[in-house]
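Researcher: Here's the sequence for the chain we discussed earlier.
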Amino acid sequence: MQPLQAALLFDDPGAPGQRVPDWDLLAEAVNLHPAHVGPELALHHGPPGSFEARLTTSELTARVVLHDTPLPLPGFATELGHALYTRLRPELAAQVRAHRAAALVEVARRDGLPPEDQAAFDRRLLVTAALAATLTRAMGPGTVHWAQSHQLFLGAEFIGLAADPFPLALFVQPGFFSDGRRVNGSYATGVEALGAAHLIGQHVRFEPHPQDMQQSYLAVLTFVDACRYAGRLPRNRAIFGAEGAPPIEVSLQPGTAAHPAGIISLRQREVARARGGPASIRPGDRVPWQRLRELVRLDTLQAALIAVVVLAQLVLFAVWDMPFGLSAPLVTARPEMSTPDDF
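Model: Thanks. This is the structure I predict for it:
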């Protein structure tokens, strides 16, 4: 199993040497981080003055390596070619190209253990997030590269996202796309949920719709969260939604070369079905729904993280003949990560 990775990028080649963390304090802070779960990480020191440290549990080995040279740009090819960073956040792509030093975090499963199940993979994800966020707070990089979902963040943004006990907005990237249709003057935009297959076993796609793309992204995060909470995938043509929002229909699609395990397609319906429409929520939940609508903004993933916590409290499934419309148990897909040599 390849390691999960995060890279902290600096514009000053001397930054890692000037900001070498106190490794003992780092280990203590990681173990106290909200995203850290499972046994405490034990620190294994390198030689005095070392630019490398290793932390372990009974099932994981984490490495932190400081580099006083830039990481090769081919390791960032996916991010640098993504519309999210070429059009919406070009400053992050520019910082990646301009970086001159880095700290690389890798968290791998130890050899000789049984195959990694979803719970073990989740623990590894969370340890990686906790370690990378703690190191980011200690060293202050300009940009953080999160490899599992191919995302880039400013250092402060990453710290904020990783503070969540299970930061879905970190683990699932919105891959925005359009089919070229215009509805009432707005382009219909869809969301490819990059990274969702690592959490529920199948790729998730929100089909193009003229609404604010952030709303579609929040619906995707809520769907992934609901599947994880239930422990199963929905049945074909299940409907989910919350009062005040149009219902969303689930369609299970066959696998493709890019997504061999299958694709879960989410399509927003403008009119609920007489049978199988969305269940209503309690009147007391109207206030958090209004809060969600006020929080959603296009210019920050921080708002998405806050809003999805609210929206996840509201989501309810309703289907024709079975509570939650759940059929297939979750079988997770493993991420294909870059190796250290790719960077």
